[in-house]
Amino acid sequence: MKKIWILAIALIASLALAACGGGNAEETDGDTVKVKIGVNGADGAQWPILQEKAAKEGIEIELIEFADYTLPNNALAQGDIDLNAFQHIAFLGQYVTESGNDIVPIGSTMFAPMGLYSEKVSDVSELKEGDKIAIPDDPSNQARALLLLESAGLITLADDFGMFGDPSKIAENKLNLEILPMTAQQTPRVLPDVAASVINNGVAGQAGFSPKEDAIFVEDETDENVHPYVNIIAARGEDKDNETYKRIAELYQEEDIAEAVKEDTNDGSILVELSQEELDKAFEELKK
């Protein structure tokens, strides 16, 4: 009788330990592993393709949709999901700094380039002394817009510009351009009144613009300055080297998914493949 009780207690303990697995990837039937990925939009054309690819390798991907940008990282940290794919490196860096939670990038996904648009000139070389340039005024996009203007050769930024630098950090402005920060939604609306406007990808799309076709200058995805704005697949720090999760990140980079992303975003977004070393470098820079 004593042996039966010992066996029963052992069985209960083992079941309790299994139940504590939370959001960790779990085996379903046979060798299939189930992975929960938190997203902000599960209707992207890339997801069914990724799910099908993963299924062929014994990985069942379940998409968990969140309506609020603040939720997927908390859910990941708490173990309710295994991965998330909704944010760029800069967003994650800010979250980790503020929360102290150990979440890291394990793969890159897409990049939505910011562009410089104009109704008055067709090339940045045509901009003149004193021209007005509109930029978004929220800290992250304002800094990104100024980095774009520097890449275009229009200004030079101070060495201590950082991730949230503003126009006060412009070290050189040869054309004495008048930089006009404003809400992101206003940047396309003021095009008749300014020489050019820096418009982020989402707002440009809503205004009917394509970075590839309409911008007079656009971010270069190979420029290290834009790495913080590359979207990622994120995992808990303890799962950084999980082979199943890394394989999902690899599958995301395949050609048919790249084509699906381009078509789904009307060429507004492109797949970018950063190495783990590049991801780590960009991420660590943000936490300094």
TrEMBL record:
Localisation per UniProt entry: Membrane
Residue numbers with lipid attached (S-diacylglycerol cysteine): 20
Keyword Signal set for record: yes
Keywords annotated in UniProt: Lipoprotein, Membrane, Palmitate, Signal
Signal peptide per UniProt: 1-18
GO cellular component, one term: membrane
Membrane topology annotation: Lipid-anchor
Top-rank taxon: Bacteria
Pfam family, one: Lipoprotein_9
Similarity comment: Belongs to the nlpA lipoprotein family.
UniProt-recorded name of the protein: Lipoprotein
Organism: Bhargavaea cecembensis
